[in-house]
Amino acid sequence: MIALANAGFHAIAPDFRGYGLSDQPSEIEKASFVDLVEDVVGLLDAFGIQKVFVVGKDFGAMVAYYLCLLHPDRVRAIVNLGMPYMRPGPQMIKLETLPQGLYIRHWQEPGRGFADFGRFDVEAVVRNIYTLFSGSELPVAEDGKEIMDLYDPSTPLPSWFTEGDLGMYSNLYEKSGFAFPLQVPYNAMFRNWSKLGEITDYTIKAPTFLILGTNDYVLKANESHINSEMLKSDVPNMEVKFIPEGSHFVQEQFPEEVNKLLVGFLNQQL
């Protein structure tokens, strides 16, 4: 946000419902990505802003993509990190093609992820997420094991993620808990498609800038999709940039490089 402000932009970074310092929704199990899209629209309306650049990371990128589908008139361009566009619907990710022990499959079972996390204190969960998901391989548990069983307290944090960072994130999750973050995105990813309404055109028409680290496990799992003709057709005005040695948390690992790319792309759209 500081880099954007120094470049002359205004920046807004809200905590979505169920995250950080925001309130928890009353019926978490019914929440979907569309609710988060409407949060963004409501925030823009409250500020009297008609059209914005949107920046998303990981599943926040899906909120940006869905904002383009549902409210294309509110988006000037989007910048997404770590997540290529996938057409929403049952065909988006076929669960049966994923490894049995992959966290995405585990967390489809109601309460499984919550119970897994509940065996550890919040700081251990956050520490494990940053150590596991900063690697280049998909975290997969053995048969009969849970994702948090991969936790090894002796594993050091990534060099770019400090104990202070860990404490800050842990304090936020102490307040919000993990129920909503497990519902959206993981459960909602395969449900509640009807909330998207009567969309007939799933093309992302806004200028799109996708930033990926070369060591991001998402890149390795989706490389064929990222290079596919389908993605080029679905996002015709897309530029992709790869950051050497970058992990799934590339914006924290290489903030100066990401900021330079972000500001440069936004300036091109003015």
From TrEMBL:
Q: Which residues form the AB hydrolase-1 domain?
A: 3-253
Question: Pfam family of this protein, just one?
Answer: Abhydrolase_1
Per UniProt, what is one GO molecular function of this protein?
Answer: hydrolase activity
Task: State if rRNA-binding is listed as a keyword.
Answer: no
Record's keyword annotation contains Chaperone: no
* UniProt keyword terms in alphabetical order: Hydrolase
Describe the family membership recorded for this protein in Swiss-Prot or TrEMBL.
Answer: Belongs to the AB hydrolase superfamily. Epoxide hydrolase family.
Protein name according to UniProt = TSA: Wollemia nobilis Ref_Wollemi_Transcript_13766_1217 transcribed RNA sequence
Tell me the organism: Wollemia nobilis
